[in-house]
Amino acid sequence: MHRNDRTTDRRTRALGGAALLAVTATGCVAMPSGGAAHRLEVPQGAADGVQVHVYPVAPHKGESPGDLLAGFLDSSNADQANYDTAKQYLTADAARRWRPDAQVVVLAEPPRLGHPVPGPDETSVPINVTGTQVAQLDVRHTYQARSSEYGETFKFVKVAEGPDAGQWRINELPDGLIVDLTNFKNTYKPVHRYFFAVTDPSERVQANPVLVPDPIYLRRRIDPLTEAARATVEGPSLWLAPVVTSPIEGVKVLSATAGDNRVASVKVDGVELGKNPAGCQQLAQQFFQTLADQQGKLNRLELSSPKGGCAISSADAAVVAPGALAGGESGMQAYIQLADGRLTRYGQPGGDPGPGAAEPVPVAGVLGQPAQGGQPRPGELAVRRDGNAVAVIDKDGRNLYRAGLTASDKYSEPIVSSHAPQGLASPSWDGRGDLWLVDRDPAAPRVLMVREPTVVPVTVEGLDKRSVQALRISSDGARIALLLRGPDGKTKLSLGLVTHGGTAAAPTARITGLRELAPQLAEVAAVSWSDTDQLVVLGKEADRLQQLHFLGTDGSQSTDSPLQGGESMTALSATEARLQADQVGPAVLAASGNGVYRLKDNQWHAVTSNATPAAFIYPG
Questions:
Q1: What residue spans of 340-495 are helical by DSSP H?
Q2: Residue 187, Cβ neighbours under 10 Å: how many?
Q3: Cβ-based neighbours of 313, under 8 Å, separated by 6 or more
Q4: CATH code that applies to domain 328-617
Q5: DSSP 8-class letter at 411
Q6: Rounded to the nearest 5°, which phi and psi values hold at 311?
Q7: What are the backbone angles phi and psi of residue 329, rounded to the nearest 5°?
């Protein structure tokens, strides 16, 4: 990520003097000012301590159209809630029509403005605004990568009457805002809102609901808690909407606050919460997670309306929190598969396979023993998130088995078989106990969901001549990461949505909404979920060495977990589970030809063992 330390003086010149700034943080303001057009790198914490306030400046009498346009663009991106000053640059009719919240266009550099010089008798003039677009926020605040040339025309007229008579004003303009990348990082903050995963109608026993994160960007200093709560009741992003739901519609957020006592309060209108206590609790759970993302730890949230309300504690919120299905302590258990095929684990849940760790212990049952004659020789393994079962693909990739982890457990009969050698691959468990895998048989490639004893062929929409090489399902089961190989032989990363249907006797599943998540990577070798809103990806950009990338589900790249060298790495495993709610940093294991390594505190540490490790697994 390119960084540029800008002093207040340079920043003011960049704004053309049409907006005033107040810098209340000490030291320099470090923000990205460039980078790849298809990637937005967002520091999750550093910018929060930077207080670069931008105050709008009203138009001056006698200003030319060119100067007015520069002033308008600066003032529209200032820290003002209702854009009142920016609207002074518009005619009365244009101010009524303009919808500033329709979108945010993010340009790589400050926009290029035309500078026509109107004649003394002219009463109208157009000015073109151009630039290289790198991103966009839509009307629901959702980030979308862009890589295109941007161009729009602003039309100015000389006002004939009223208080602005004789002055130039903007009469026609595109809806939304235009901002360069540096100002975007200062003005907007990445946050999450949360929605419940939709119910699977084919589940035999309905599981507890769980919240799914929906990443968005909001203005950093315009009442961020209230704005986040309002964004929640507006509904999810258009992409995520098919797989999530909200309990109550028609809610209007009046305010959202949080005190030093770690108690948050949300006041709403438009709904009688007293008549829907279950819906009130669920809405409170959504608000709790959304506000806690910004405020930090909360102990309690109180939700009130003119007619009723409710309150939840942190314990209530934890039941449906994102990652509640990731396995908890079991999800943090590290496993190592030895060269002789035995599966081992470290002695306690959350065991640390780092320097000085105790030797791993073979698991109970058949998987903790070397393969005997007549038994399948284990290849790829996936431990269920509760730690009680393992999916086993044999060494030649033709058969899938299940085995338990108690002393009496044996291999099941083959559950799935492939006609192609090395056809079956990439087993992955969601948090509800369904197993997902791919069959890479060139003659009949397919994605499968196993809900024993049923094997469900999964329809994947939008493949467009690509084939699925590997997959990783999120713990909530609503989203799935796919490695897709195209006709050119390159493997790229896409994220899809999982929709369920059918009945308990005949379930169906479908993957829809595929979107490429890391277009900057020319080749992707491996992917794993490292949090409910983050993927860890082993891949390389064109003409660069392979690295470990941490990507949000919206495609933005986290700088809380910076890029890690991984040129010799061949595989990786991570987990969404956390031992503590405030745990920082993902748990990642990676393998190379030289052994297995664990990423801790942004440093690689060799996993020491007297036996030769062949593979490694976090549950999922």
A1: none
A2: 22
A3: 299, 300
A4: 2.120.10.30
A5: B
A6: -145, 150
A7: -60, -40
14 or 356, greater pLDDT: 356
d(CA 7, CA 262): 36
CA nearest 535: which of 521, 548, 522, 520? 548
Residues 6+ apart with CB under 8 A from 588: 528, 530, 536, 548, 572, 573, 574, 598, 599
Diameter of the chain measured on Cα atoms: 97
Angle, alpha carbons 611-616-620 (nearest 5°):
150
Helix locations, 19-91, DSSP H: 65-76, 84-87
Strands (E), 335-415: 335-338, 343-345, 361-362, 378-383, 389-394, 399-404
Instruction: Check pLDDT > 60 for residue 411.
Output: yes
Query: Could you count the other beta carbons within 10 Å of the beta carbon of residue 173?
Result: 21
Beta strands 263-269 and 252-258, pairing class: antiparallel
For 559, the enclosing helix (H) or strand (E) is none
Give the rounded percent of residues in the chain with a pLDDT score beyond 70.
Answer: 87
Q: Output the CA–CA distances (angstroms, integers) from residue 131 to 40, 111, 188, 578, in the order listed.
A: 17, 5, 20, 43
Six-digit token string for 451 = 């809900």
How buried is 362 (Cβ within 10 angstroms: 0-12 exposed, 13-18 middle, 19+ buried)? middle
Tally of CB atoms within 10 A around 436: 25
CA dist 92 and 73 (Å) reads: 18
Residue type, 539: G
pLDDT at residue 262 above 90? yes
Peptide bond into 201 cis (omega under 30): no
Report the alpha-carbon distance of residue 446 to residue 398 in Å, rounded: 14
Tokens for 449, please give them. 């969901």
Q: Are 587 and 568 in contact, with CB atoms under 8 Å apart?
A: no
Give the three-state DSSP class for 226: helix
Could you count the other beta carbons within 10 Å of the beta carbon of residue 6? 20
Q: Are 437 and 459 in contact (CB under 8 A)?
A: no
Q: Which of 533, 557, 492 is nearest to 135 (CA)?
A: 557
Quote the CA–CA distance of 5 and 33 in Å, as a whole number: 9
- From-to residues of CATH 2.120.10.30 in the chain: 328-617
Q: Encode pLDDT of 338-371 as tens digits.
A: 888 889 987 555 555 655 556 788 999 999 998 8
- Could you tell me the sign of the dihedral formed by the alpha carbons of 515, 517, 522, 524, in that order? negative
